[in-house]
Amino acid sequence: MDPKPNPKPISNIIRPVGSAAQFNTSRHNLGLCRSVINTCYYTVSTSCLEQHALESVIENALARVMIQHGILCVGIAGEDTNAPAFVHLKTIDLRRMIEWKEMLVSIPNVENDTGSPSSQWDGLLLRSLEKCHEPLWEDLDQKPGWKIIIHHDPRQLAPDGSQSTVIALDISFAFHHAYADGKSAYIFHESLLRALNDPPSTTPPPSLQAHTLHLARPPVIPPPLENLIPFTLSWPYLLRTLFQALIWDPLIPSWLKPAPHLPWTGSLIDPSQPRCHLRLLSLPPRRLAALLARCRAHDATLTGLLHALLLASLSARVPAPRFAGTTPVSLAPYAAPFEGMHCLFTGHDTAFDAASPSSALVWTQAARVTAQLRARAAALPRDDVMALMGYVSDWGKFHTDRFGGPRAHTWEVSNVGSARFGREGGWRIGRAVFTQGANPLGAALKVNVAGVVGEAGGVWITVGWQEGAVPAEVAEGVVEDLGKWIDVEGEGGMLGLGEDEKEKGGL
Fold first, then answer.
1. Disulfide engineering: 283 pairs with which of 204, 279, 288, 429, CB 3.0-4.6 Å?
2. What HEC string does 21-73 produce?
3. For the chain, what percentages of helix, strand and coil (3-state, to nearest 5) are there?
4. At 168, is the secondary structure helix, strand, or coil?
């Protein structure tokens, strides 16, 4: 939908969403970025519920989280205009914010207090998340653009009275990207876990009445990104960027430009397909420790390694001379102090030439990407594109002008890190899974990394792609390669990348 030229006045405005967040509201308005989801695996003994209904315990805890984080209590009005704003919602029906999703498995989903999902459960979870990524957020001016989906086996909600019975739930926090980012999703789960373990969770807060949260006063929400980050721009960077966007790209004829060396980035941009495919890989603590040890030995990080492994896989599977990777980079370390959740990130692009897969290639490229990301982090917040968001007067046109053209990136590696959740109380979190949906303007392949610190934690990697963005056999082949190559055992383990490793005594 194109922005309305003469929008109606908006009432109950708390503040404009801001120029940076308008990038996300405009993408959602066009159906280009629907939901980001962080799913955490919760376990609790039925004895901890003290005979209170699970549904009430979760609703009460969620209400307390919403009261704590004001951004969860606002709507967005005027998303289809060039002046969207966060608005005050005086009442929020929590029955619209919580979805219970039944998943029946023949294999028990949890057998002990640490929590260990079965592969059958994970398969059902992925199919559910694929569907959760498809819908747009409706009635945003009347309800917040987020919800939780509680994936559960209904047979666990009717325990037989045994005090050792453990209930396992995958609770997905799905959200509009203008509300939060991947790291803020951890803040949500940390807050929810704390609220569940707080004894008052068995009783509703005073403002929650008959499933409805009453908010007489507008909640306090953080300032927009551009007001939190002290960006600085050098004249060379500013002039070069504006010249590229305003003169070179739109006005200079192609016959006057050098021949482009475009990377392979999958199919052309198709905004009509909301379906996505998701696959899941795991790195249990022992294998994760071995892999990180190998990374440190080569002055690389897991993020850099994943970029290199994607290069190795696609070089063998796609007859293309070059590829393009991108990495979201958190801006939270550079922000002025604030409380709560936010969407604070920029990106860093890396160009790759295709090459024959080998351990030497992988570690050389992993170290190169790692060095680039460290240099970028050291330079921020100077000369960053997020400081220029206010120069775009019509985000809708900015996006639609790209329809039918090539994507900018072959793959994205988004690593939100590992969360250290509290171990106090009966409720525990055993893992985190981070997923993105079918963003037609985004990278053809999305690799997302999330983890939980602790014996039962480790790291979980999802690979996702829009329907039709890449040939299915290529995407599935990349998933197979990543699963094989990160399968490292023991402190002296090796990447499963071919005979050259064994001949050289490991990587």
1. 288
2. HHHHHHHHHCCCCCCEEEEEEEEEEHHHHCCCCHHHHHHHHHHHHHHHCHHHH
3. 35, 25, 40
4. strand
**pLDDT at residue 499, as a whole number:** 45
- Specify whether the CB–CB gap between 430 and 114 falls below 8 A: yes
Q: How remote is the C-alpha of 183 from its chain's centroid?
A: 8
69 Cβ contact partners less than 8 Å away, ≥ 6 residues apart? 187, 188, 191, 340, 341
Residue 306, classed as helix, strand or coil, is: helix
**Whole-number Cα distances in Å, 482 to 121, 488, 496:** 22, 11, 9
Which of 42-51, 52-61, 432-441, 479-488 has the least mean pLDDT? 42-51
- Rounded to whole angstroms, the Cα distance separating 153 from 342 reads 32
C-alpha to C-alpha distance for 252 and 43, rounded to whole angstroms: 60
Query: Which residue reads 């351990």 in tokens?
Result: 359
Predicted pLDDT at 185: 97
The pLDDT score that the predictor gives to residue 119 is 87
263 cis-preceded (ω within 30 degrees of 0): no
| Cβ atoms of residues 373 and 348 within 8 Å | yes
For residue 410, the SS3 value is: coil
- Asked if 97 and 28 touch (Cβ cutoff 8 Å), the reply is no
How many residues in the chain? Answer: 507
pTM: 0.93
Over residues 211-249, the pLDDT tens digits come to 999 999 999 999 999 999 999 999 999 888 887 876 667
How are beta strands 212-214 and 208-209 bridged, if at all? antiparallel
pLDDT, tens digit, 9 for 90 and up, residues 421-464: 988 889 999 999 999 999 999 999 999 999 999 867 799 999 99
Task: Render pLDDT for 363-381 as a digit per residue (tens, 0 to 9).
Answer: 999 999 999 999 999 999 9
| CA dist., res. 359 & res. 370, Å (int) | 16
DSSP state of 15: E
Identify the residue whose tokens are 């219970």: 100
Please give the helix or strand (H or E) that residue 278 lies within, else none. strand 276-283
Query: Residue 324: is it exposed, middle or buried by C-beta count within 10 angstroms (0-12/13-18/19+)?
Result: buried
Q: Tell how far CA 259 is from the center of its chain.
A: 35
The domains located in the chain, with CATH, are: 13-214 (3.30.559.10), 276-330+346-420+430-498 (3.30.559.30)
**401 contact partners, CB below 8 Å, separation of at least 6:** none
Summarize pLDDT for 353-362 with one digit per residue, the tens: 999 999 999 9
